[in-house]
User: Fold this.
Amino acid sequence: MEIKKPAIAGTLESSDCQVTVEAGEGKVDFSLESAVINQYGNQIRKVAYETLDNLGIDNVKLTIVDKGALDCTIKARIEAAVYRSIGQIEDLPWGGAIR
Amino acid sequence: MNPNKKRLRRTMMFLNAQKPGLIKDPYIYKPDSIMLDLEDAVAENQKDAARFSLYHALKTINYRGCERVVRINGLDTPYWKEDIRCAVAGGCDAIRIPKTESAQDVKVVEAEVIQAEKDFGREEGSVLIMAAIESARGVMRALDICESSERLFGIALSGGDYTKDLQTHITGTGIELMGARQNMVIAARAAGVQCFDTVYTDLDDMDGFRQDVENIHLMGFDGKSIINPRQINIVHEIFTPKQKDIIFAEKVVREIDTKKAQGIGVFTVDGKMIDIAFYDGAKRTIELAKASGVYKGDL
Amino acid sequence: MINAVGRDIPEEILKVTGKEVFQGVHHFDGHVYKKHGPEVECVINSNGSKMVDSIHDVLVKCGIKDGMTVSFHHHFREGDYVVNMVMKEIHDMGIKDITICASSLGKAHDPLVEYIEDGTITNIQSSGVRGKIGEAISNGKLKGLAIMRSHGGRVRALVTGETQIDIAFIGTPTCDEYGNCRGIGGKSDCGVLSYAMSDAFHANKMVAITDCMVPFPNFPAHISMTKVDYVVEVDQIGDPKKIATGAAKPTTDMRKLMMADYCTQFVVNTPYFKDGFSYQTGVGGASIASTISLAKVMKERNIRMRFGVGGLTKPMCDLLINGQVDALLDTQDFDLAAVESVKDLHHFRISAGEYANPFNKGAVVNKLDFVILAALEVDVHFNCNVVVDSNGMITGAQGGHPDTAAGAKCAIVIAPLLQGRTPAICTDVTTVTTPGESVDVVITDYGIAINPKRQDLIEAMKDVDLPFKTIEELRDIAYSIAGEPQKVQFGDRVVGVIESRDGTIMDVVRQIKPFEFDD
Assistant:
């Protein structure tokens, strides 16, 4: 999948994260700001890359501002941003690319 | 029949499916059911994001025995079909239909649920349905709605919209809800499904809340929708059989069993006249006590 | 060298500080030492006045010079003006290399960072630091070491002479021209001056700073003229709105209410809950809620509290108003209700020394049955961290945590299992402030763990219907939800020492460094 237009999902509330996706420069460009970066920075990055991989995205600028979100929320926000970026809101691949 | 159809549902706690802080661990407050809301609580421009949040919450979070009901958007919106796909794929226990006005509404949803169960490899019949009634028309058709589907485990009154339709408003006294409550609980009992009362929104008036719960308990409701975990203990306290009632029910069941064998039809327990007609009620008390985790006996 | 809580204290720190490693809470029981006394400049001439025109003039009179130690109290909390006022003057006079010995420092003192950066302040001794000073220390900006001491430990350091205060600056709500200080009255009413009382005993020079002069004698004095060298009147010693706030509205957060309820249920099922018990609690939402629910049970069962201790809030003072407690022993007032309550005959002021100094012939904390505490982290050894946040930043204060935990028969720590994503129950705390041997019970929203050392409490709870778990189970639940946290990536330099209340080293705090991903 290709990122079509920049998109944002999520909030800056506690336990949430705000994810921005923009068209990449031929690779995954990952940046993270997190209140728990020391404890979970590597884990968040792992989840982010896995989520992108499941979606078949390898060309994106992904920015996460994390406020202590659990992995399931990080995934959900990345997917929401990606599908917003391509404008798909129906017939989503639940259990497929979204997993 | 899905064995969960008649499960204990004293409390059903509303949670905005779009708020990670709310949906991450509501089970610590031990509501019987949680209702993950995609409808009114979610802003129009967040309907898409809420589904991803819902899907992963259902997939990942161990809700430790709380039933997971998903309230989908209304059948008059563009969202409800995808809501069902997402909720069923995620593994929800039940779908709540808002603004139900007819048996047909339930059937339409049921068809989508069946399709989603197939699409996402879930056992047929594993997803239950409940119908929220929010209008005068819905109240008048309550029995039809209750009998519309084998999957339908119950109906719930949604007082805010209903009172608007009735051209009155929520007063806190319950007067404006009397007819709907009475009609719905009678319909539900006639059809053999459960009936749930509307939310009580004034969190500063816990005495008023308690009174409200006591009223609907006496009316025969099975439980109440709640908006805050502070309301759980009060509902559970009122809906859980008291020890003295459990002990009495136990005696009634045992006495009826023995007396029946001896061919005696009418007798007394603790000075009260008892006959076979008390049997089902006493059994129900024991079952409710068991489900609420307060029964230690061997019946 | 490994200490009794398993922390490796670098040799160089032991050398620089001349301290030993922590060897257990009761290691110094029975220890004999000689108290240290201050220099005293006699005031015999009856023509002498103690009034001095300005902070600048009083610094000159006290002979301020490079390398001195100056002290402050924190009764004005986030409303304090005194520390900044004095330090600005010291800075403007070009003095360097000052050690600040404060009972605590908070966000109100953010302006001090500039003086840390320019070398005016090179050492800090405090219960802890919040706000920008904490960040500055954690970022390695303080030239010397920050020493974090409990309230009792601070008095011990003064009494033993480990810390010699050159000049103590005591903000006082009212004062007379001869230096009698009282914590009540005036426009910056803080109720008590408990933390400053030890400074008055042990500082070489002692300056009272007030914004409300009253005629002599300002009696009964909380700090006597016999210990005061100079008095300075200024416009404002603090912001009254931030000194004593309105009573906090009882929490409606069900998570906190639930933990408070667990706490009360636990307390009332211990053998210590009987007529004449004693109790201390903090100012967190759950602590306050548990005091309120405990008061209900006390009423139902007709049980009276003999005494309540500590930093006080409205719910504790309500016990006095409602005749449910015989006496309150007060070290600090957190709200206006507490300031008002000080006027009650059964509400007594005590000094920080009386309260918690382990090198007394006994302290009030030793007489406590219960203390209800909070913590940022508790590990499976029951060690608590209250000073350093999950990113390794100094952000809190020891306060009376280790003192009360050591003294109380039943020390209960309340913490939600997850603070955001960060597990409060973990394998090893980032930094130990209170040793696990002092901590008896941990109450979380997911369950309650009793320290296995307290088999008596485990036995007492055997038939009690509460969600008991082992501490390891609680940690496992936390990790199963949030994932297992990685350790904070610290730099090498030690920037702070967590001192045990007996003066030994409990742990060290290292400089933080920017996070780097594994690769």
